[in-house]
Amino acid sequence: MTSLSGPTFRVERNPNFDNLRRTLRREGPPGPVPLIELFADPATMENILGEKFPIDLRELVRPGRSSENKLANLLMAKKVMDMIVQFCYETGYDYVFTFAGANFPRENYLRTEDTADQKNYAAGERVWQDEETGPIQNWEDFERYPWPEAEKISSAAIDYLNAVIPEGMKISVVIGGVFENSSWLMGLQPFSYALFDQPDLVQAICDRVGELTVAAAKKAASYEKVGIVFHGDDLGYLGGTTLSPTAIRKYIFPYHRRLVEAVHAEGKLALLHSCGNLEKIMDDIIDIGWDGKHSYEDNIMHVEEVHRRWGDRIAILGGVDMDLLGRGAEEAVRRRTREILEACGTKGTGYCLGTGNTVANYIPQANYLAMMDEGRRWNHERFGTPY
Q1: Which of 243, 173, 253, 178 is nearest to 208 (CA)?
Q2: What whole-number distance in Å separates Cα of residue 328 and Cα of residue 321?
Q3: Would residue 128 count as lying in a domain?
Q4: What are the pLDDT digits (tens) for 31-76?
């Protein structure tokens, strides 16, 4: 049998998820501004840790992955999880991120060379969604699609983390999006046409995906050491919402509401990561009951303005612009981090520091660490926390 002793650490910390919980719930007393991210790219973690993952991380979730040599697979998976725990602990987070949820098999991907200096995967490729096609185009496709079963949704990563997570930390479980998975099954272009030509099929896809997503969130939230369910569902682009607000309210938001209710029923936090210009549906997002909203970019609305407009009703998360982090000078990153903290963090509640999206592999390590370091310095000056 393999040991569940978990990873070892090069530094000592006192993680404080209670402080993060208080911040997300916008409760007092004022305290240090926590760090938050949806996740970090594999290459970023490898770069920070100075160690390579033992396997291409996509292999851990690939449909039909070989079960031969189960002990070797188990040891590799354990090593992967230990490295993620080490990264989250040593860089200053109060939680460990992992992924769960239903797997919707499909092959409608496009691939190109990853031009970042630090590659996420051995093949050196970047993968994104082909929006012109998908495995479901009509009712026949819907009926023969290999829909996952709710009772078979894997929680192996949560099982392991629940046993080894360091004291003071909790688990943040990233659950895939209702809209994202629904649209990817058709491709956004045919999905958009189907809103008018086959609305009953769109409804059926969203219902099936939504039910499975809620089931996955409910299962994840039932674990003792899970503190957050983080739902990633990009609903917008630079100019507005990808679907009309009416369509989002009809097809997507009913399942967002059910997900939040299921997570809250377990006493856990429900956070939404959603990119794009969501100004027209922010009131809906708040009304659904999300504890926090993540993902902002300066070209749409500076996070300070988001905080000014909605920060008294929902926690505002992240917002250090990705373009600045990716291409700006270190001093500019430090200056911008302080600007955001002075505008959003002075109350010591309702705001968490982080990137505008995720810790992507194209962010230079120096810029990522500068943002983190400036946050620690600012907290020390403002709240007297150890630096």
Answers
A1: 178
A2: 10
A3: yes
A4: 999 999 999 999 999 999 999 998 887 766 554 444 445 556 777 8
